[in-house]
Amino acid sequence: MAGAARFVWLMSAAATVLYAPVLAVSLTISPPQLTARSWLFLIGTGILQAGYFLFLQWSYRAGDLSAVYPIGRGSGALLAAVGGIVILGERPGPATLAGIVLGAPGRRPGQGTGSPAAGRGAARTAISPAAIGFALVTGLFIATYTVWDKVAVTTVGNPPLLQGYASVLGMAVMLAPAALADRARLRQTWHRYRRQAVGAGLLSPLAYILVLIAMTFTSVAAVAPAREVSVLFGVVLGRRLLGEGGLARRLAGGAAIVIGVIAVAVG
After folding, report:
1. pTM confidence score
2. What is the rounded distance in angstroms from the CA atom of residue 220 to the CA atom of residue 262?
3. Alpha-carbon distance 54 to 87, whole Å?
4. Would you give the end-to-end CA distance of the chain in angstroms?
5. Exposed, middle or buried: residue 256 (CB in 10 Å: 0-12, 13-18, 19+)?
6. What gap in Å lies between CA 10 and CA 180, rounded to an integer?
7. CB burial class (10 A; 0-12, 13-18, 19+) of residue 187?
8. Among 158-167, 190-199, 219-228, which is the least confidently predicted range?
């Protein structure tokens, strides 16, 4: 678990540095009017995003990427859409509701994978209960920070760029004690995975800032399921890069997600 914290800290630290000039220009051009409530939502998103990334990393350690990623993302989309309806009072149409139900489940847990466990040389024939548990908690964090940030960029009025930056800065601050406790291993992690950390630090915040912009004028029930097209890429990458099995079954689940997204768009 310490290894996951080190990588997530490196990713969030890289993102904090990469996006600092962009944020500085944005705040100079259009200074926001921040209230005490604004700061509460800025701090809260960092805590929620840190929990999300840690449980996502732990789920990857316990199960195949192409198995746990659809479970986490699918359950997160479903719970976020429900949160938008129950908490925010959104009223999606019948087609949107059908798309949420169809797209959210993704891949059912418990199907065999037949893939080798990365780095351990042993075959995993089924996703473990621990992997399912970590993936579902990941989904809970996804739903929570999605609804939280929807309120932040609409009701509270925080700029999407600032809200997105607060999430990576918050993660960097929260995980610093754990990551910096063992400087030698942190350096090893950086030397081994620096390209991945910088790449994730560049792309992950950018993707989420675009989501935040979309949520300023679109309901959570529409945006959350639409994000799950990434599940298809997770399934394919799990097969191509990691040699994971069960591609046909997992692609079928991914296809259900895409159909669900189309239904959401139509609705």
Report:
1. 0.74
2. 15
3. 26
4. 41
5. buried
6. 10
7. exposed
8. 219-228
